[in-house]
């Protein structure tokens, strides 16, 4: 309790500190320090271990003594422990505490960035639980609905922290499922949840007396509804004892019974609260707050307008629903009508209850009004001309409104399923035994009304509401918000209801309209499902041009897409859409100079769409480093004009990046900071809406925050200089540390082309400006690898040419892999073979060269390998090339077993601590073992089956003249074991196979005959010696 009081006191002091930072008051600093020192330093003996539970205090010189006491109480804390505390602080009920914790987290991530990245490297999955909680808490911070300046700064600093953490791959972040929203509960349960989880928090965290009084009034009225009296609390009882003794009166027997019943209900509710909550709400037992009655001034028809803020819309809708609430819960809703104006968490919590009350117990007009309100939000989102669709200034607020509707519909659907399940479970009990029937009703009293027929009617009303909302509208609204999985869920339901199942063999399989198939293909395109696109295209009688475009875009066949666009332009020569798609093709094919040329031509021929052309041209200009063109295109992109919507997905963010780079060139530090802040501000609202759904949906916005953070890092390195005149060197300590940090952050991102391309493009710009050709080449190699993995082979080939021009090492490996991926195995092997022949013979080894060229090369005994760092790196490059060459000639069967083993052996010699060399050597020897075992066992079985018994002995003797399969076993087990000893990347392949072979041989050994066991004994002894 002491720690909670201390936290509560510090929260108000932190509010004063935040005001101090605003510059509102500078004369109270000494008083603030004095209060904190008295609270923490002078009372440290009394508080003892509770000090460690205090919220974060700013790390400033004036509070050094306070921080020292808190640090001593907490002791030595690892970074992981600090992150645990940060998560708790970010979930604190007080806004000022959350802001201070977020500020300290930002400082922590800046000061300990190397340690932070090392935490992922060393612990990996062990730290992901903390990171998942941290990311979730930061998403909540971005969704902060407070209208105060502290609330706005909290959103910005949470976005900054997400960028500092980096765009961690969604596959690594564990999904944090939200607690199931149980609508169906009794009135007392609802009152308890409201007070315990929401109103007590709002009361403590209130930034001003108006909000605090609103929360206190709601608590006061709810306690009255539940029958809680002042006599329930001992402290209040003492204060009111004298007044109660002076009251004299008589009551009827019926009145006494009602009083007793209410007192018992109130006692049960009061006993459910913790002592901490009781201490907060006890004054409300005797308070006399009043909220004036407000007339229902709500206008008829839907409230929502696309230009409305989320806070304003939700408040007016709840106000309207509260005015029309009926039944026992209307008093509960009326008690909260003051606090919902100020606290969006409570508003969102009450919304499903209010809607359910209106649908189940309200009039037909109330139900149709709810349907109209929901449809007004969804129709605005589904409309092509809505602000949401065109990403207007208020699009982020609109997305939050749409997400609130989706959550409401999910909760109502869950309620229907729960009710149907409860009724279904109660049916067998009702039919089997009358006593059990009464018992079953008692068991479900807390979740179902007494009359099951009434429940069925209510369930029908809710189901009708859900059915009245067209699935097609839901699907289109979801698609506009980039919630592709939800869109697919709704649209598949819509298509099945209208046209039947997708399976032609099903009972009902109709003919699908082209419009429906086109929309489904767009959804699958958003989900990155190229196989689904091909399957859907087959449902058409003839493939359309748009289908061909979508399929080829997802497959990365940009040359095919470009051909289709050219064909479309012949039919529609003045189509802006097709010309924008042509520019997009050039961008994705990495033909950036072609984009610039094309944009210049379009600006002169179709000047009315100059804004569109320049917006796309900016993407190519800053990647090329054509700063004059970038300035020109930025001017055109900022002009008033028509903007083609297809070019907007990432082009607007690229325009922000270009403006930041422009400010860096001009050495305008204020402008750099301003433009980065504005770019983050534009991302916060859609990020908050997407974060309400899932991390995967919010991931594109996190990637953009990741890039903005690296732009800030680069600006810090420039130290006020223009990057055009500042040449960095790899031996500069600060620059080197920054590059290492960027590389670590890149490894944590999703290994997809769309996520990593902007990051690599920016780094290429940095290296090109500093003349670091080798580093620039590495970026192109990484880009080529991503393109190859995504199947974008033409772009990968272009990236390889750029890497070769930049002088990157190991270009031959990536080129060979590209040839292998495009099924040109002979060309891939020839590329590696030529590269090996150009390498030093003394390093590759004469035996390896001999195996490659099939003739002997001198010297026979190569000199010992050098051990310096540069030589080791060269050896690793050669080992990678040799290993890849060996694997491919093994797969294609171009060399004999002895040649293959010689090449694998040379790989081991070049890199004796490399896990990969031992693993692939083990796999090859394993295949030899399996082949020998199968051949020998088949031969023995066949000879026993077809030959007389006296000839079978001769046949088995012939088989035994060949090397027995188990003699290969020691080498296989040894290589697997050595690979596992040197790394764990192949753990799930190597360890199971190693154990399988070991156990299999052991069982054969102990079941074999005496003669066979004698042959196996040496192998058995040798195998056992490995593990002694």
Task: Please provide a written account of the structure.
By secondary structure, the protein is mainly α. The chain is about 70% helix and about 0% strand. It contains 49 helices and no strands. Helix 44 packs antiparallel against helix 45. The two termini are about 60 Å apart.
Q: What proportion of the residues form beta strands (DSSP E)?
A: under 5%
- Which spans of ≥5 residues are poorly predicted at pLDDT below 50? 1-5, 239-256, 385-393, 429-449, 855-863, 865-869, 949-957
Alpha plus pi helix count = 49
Shape: globular
Q: What is the mean predicted local confidence, pLDDT?
A: 81
How many strands, what sense, and barrel or not for the largest sheet?
A: none
Distance between the termini: 58 Å
Structural class: mainly alpha
Q: Helix content range of the residues, please? A: over 70%
Pfam family, one: M-HEAT_ATR
Main location: nucleus
Subcellular location: Nucleus
Protein name: non-specific serine/threonine protein kinase
Set out the fold topology.
Layout: H1 2-22, H2 29-41, H3 44-47, H4 64-74, H5 79-90, H6 95-111, H7 113-123, H8 128-142, H9 149-165, H10 187-205, H11 209-225, H12 234-246, H13 253-272, H14 275-281, H15 310-323, H16 329-335, H17 344-361, H18 364-382, H19 395-432, H20 434-443, H21 452-468, H22 471-480, H23 484-499, H24 514-526, H25 530-537, H26 545-555, H27 558-571, H28 576-588, H29 592-605, H30 610-624, H31 627-637, H32 651-665, H33 669-691, H34 695-718, H35 733-748, H36 753-770, H37 773-790, H38 793-806, H39 811-821, H40 825-837, H41 841-844, H42 846-853, H43 869-892, H44 897-910, H45 915-946, H46 949-960, H47 969-982, H48 987-1007, H49 1010-1026
């Amino acid at each position: 309790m002491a720690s909670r009081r201390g936290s509560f006191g510090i929260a108000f002091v932190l509010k004063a500190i935040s005001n101090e930072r605003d510059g509102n008051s500078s004369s109270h600093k000494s008083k603030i320090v004095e209060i904190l020192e008295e609270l923490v330093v002078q009372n440290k003996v009394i508080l003892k271990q509770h000090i460690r539970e205090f919220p974060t205090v700013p790390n400033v010189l004036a509070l050094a003594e306070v921080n020292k006491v808190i640090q001593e109480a907490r002791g030595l804390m690892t970074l992981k422990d600090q992150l645990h505390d940060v998560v708790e602080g970010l979930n604190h009920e007080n806004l000022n505490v959350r802001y201070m914790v977020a500020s300290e987290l930002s400082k922590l991530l800046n000061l300990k960035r190397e340690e932070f990245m090392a935490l992922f490297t060393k612990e990996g999955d062990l730290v992901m639980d903390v990171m998942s909680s941290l990311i979730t808490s930061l998403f909540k911070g971005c969704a902060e609905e407070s209208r105060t300046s502290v609330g706005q700064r909290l959103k910005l600093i949470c976005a900054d922290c997400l960028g500092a953490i980096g765009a961690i791959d969604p596959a690594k972040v564990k999904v944090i499922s939200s607690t199931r929203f149980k609508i169906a509960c009794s009135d007392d349960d609802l009152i308890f949840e409201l007070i315990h989880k929401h109103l007590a928090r709002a009361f403590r965290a209130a930034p001003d007396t108006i909000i605090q009084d609103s929360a206190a009034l709601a608590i006061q009225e709810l306690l009255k509804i539940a029958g809680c009296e002042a006599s329930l609390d001992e402290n209040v009882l003492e204060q009111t004892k004298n007044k109660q003794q002076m009251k004299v009166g008589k009551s009827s027997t019926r009145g006494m019974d009602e009083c007793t019943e209410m007192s018992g209900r109130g006692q049960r509710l009061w006993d459910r609260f913790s002592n901490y909550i009781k201490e907060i709400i006890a004054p409300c037992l005797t308070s006399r707050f009043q909220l004036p009655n407000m007339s229902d001034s709500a206008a008829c028809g839907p409230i929502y307008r696309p230009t409305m803020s989320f806070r304003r819309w939700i408040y007016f809708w709840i106000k309207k629903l509260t005015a029309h609430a009926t039944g026992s819960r209307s008093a509960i809703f009326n008690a909260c009508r003051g606090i919902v104006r100020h606290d969006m968490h409570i508003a969102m919590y009450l919304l499903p209850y209010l809607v359910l009350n209106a649908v189940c117990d309200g009039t037909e007009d109330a139900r149709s009004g709810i349907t109209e309100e929901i449809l007004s939000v969804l129709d605005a989102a589904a409309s092509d001309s809505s602000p949401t669709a065109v990403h207007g200034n208020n699009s982020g607020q609109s997305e939050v409104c749409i997400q609130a509707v989706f959550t409401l519909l999910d909760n109502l659907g869950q309620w229907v399923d729960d009710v149907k399940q409860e009724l279904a479970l109660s049916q067998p009990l009702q039919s089997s035994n009358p006593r059990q029937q009464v018992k079953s009703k008692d068991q479900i009293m807390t979740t179902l009304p007494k009359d099951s027929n009434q429940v069925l009617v209510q369930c029908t009303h809710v189901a009708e509401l859900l059915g009245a909302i067209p699935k097609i509208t839901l699907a289109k609204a979801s698609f506009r918000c980039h919630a592709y999985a939800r869109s697919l869920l709704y649209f598949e339901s819509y298509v099945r209801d209208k046209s039947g199942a997708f399976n032609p063999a099903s009972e009902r399989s109709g003919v699908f309209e082209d419009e429906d198939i086109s929309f489904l293909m767009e959804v699958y395109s958003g989900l990155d499902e190229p196989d689904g696109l091909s399957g859907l295209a087959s449902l058409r009688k003839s493939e359309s041009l748009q289908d061909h475009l979508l399929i080829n875009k997802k497959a990365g066949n940009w040359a095919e897409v470009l051909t289709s666009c050219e064909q479309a332009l012949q039919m529609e020569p003045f189509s802006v859409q097709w010309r924008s798609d042509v520019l997009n093709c050039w961008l994705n094919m990495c033909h950036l100079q072609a984009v610039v040329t094309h944009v210049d031509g379009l600006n002169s021929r179709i000047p009315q769409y100059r804004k569109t052309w320049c917006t796309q041209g900016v993407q190519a200009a800053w990647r090329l480093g054509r700063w004059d063109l970038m300035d020109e295109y930025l001017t055109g992109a900022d002009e008033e004009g028509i903007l083609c919507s297809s070019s907007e997905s990432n082009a607007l963010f690229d325009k922000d990046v270009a403006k930041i780079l422009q400010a860096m060139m001009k050495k305008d530090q204020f402008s750099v900071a301003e433009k980065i802040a504005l770019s983050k501000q534009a991302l916060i609202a859609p990020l908050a809406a997407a974060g309400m759904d899932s991390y995967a949906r919010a991931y594109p916005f996190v990637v953009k925050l990741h890039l903005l953070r690296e732009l800030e890092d680069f600006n810090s390195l420039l130290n006020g200089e223009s990057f055009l005149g500042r040449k960095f060197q790899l031996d500069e300590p600060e620059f080197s540390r920054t590059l290492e940090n960027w590389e670590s952050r890149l490894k944590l991102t999703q290994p997809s082309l769309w996520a990593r391309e902007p990051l690599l493009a920016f780094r290429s710009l940095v290296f090109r400006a500093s003349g670091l050709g080798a580093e620039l080449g590495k970026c192109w190699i990484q880009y080529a690898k991503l393109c190859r993995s995504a199947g974008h082979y033409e772009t990968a080939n272009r990236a390889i040419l750029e890497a070769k021009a930049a002088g990157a090492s190991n270009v031959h490996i990536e080129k060979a892999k590209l040839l292998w991926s495009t099924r040109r195995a002979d060309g891939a092997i020839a590329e590696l073979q030529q590269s090996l022949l150009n390498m030093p013979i003394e390093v590759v080894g004469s035996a390896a060269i001999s195996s490659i060229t099939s003739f002997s090369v001198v010297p026979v005994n190569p000199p010992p390998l050098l051990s310096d760092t540069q030589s080791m790196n060269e050896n690793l490059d050669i080992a990678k090339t040799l290993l890849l060459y060996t694997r491919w000639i093994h797969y294609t069967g171009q060399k004999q077993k002895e040649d293959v083993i010689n090449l694998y052996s040379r790989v081991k010699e070049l890199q004796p601590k490399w896990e990969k060399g031992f693993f692939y050597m083990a796999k090859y020897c394993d295949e030899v073992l399996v082949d020998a075992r199968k051949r020998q066992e088949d031969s023995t079985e066949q000879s026993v089956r077809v030959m007389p018994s006296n000839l079978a002995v001769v046949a088995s003797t012939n088989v035994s003249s060949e090397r027995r399969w188990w003699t290969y076993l020691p080498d296989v087990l040894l290589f697997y074991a050595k690979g596992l000893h040197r790394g764990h990347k192949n753990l799930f392949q190597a360890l199971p196979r190693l154990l399988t072979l070991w156990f299999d041989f052991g069982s054969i050994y102990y079941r074999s005959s005496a003669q066979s066991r004698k042959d196996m004994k040496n192998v058995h002894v040798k195998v056992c010696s490995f593990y002694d």
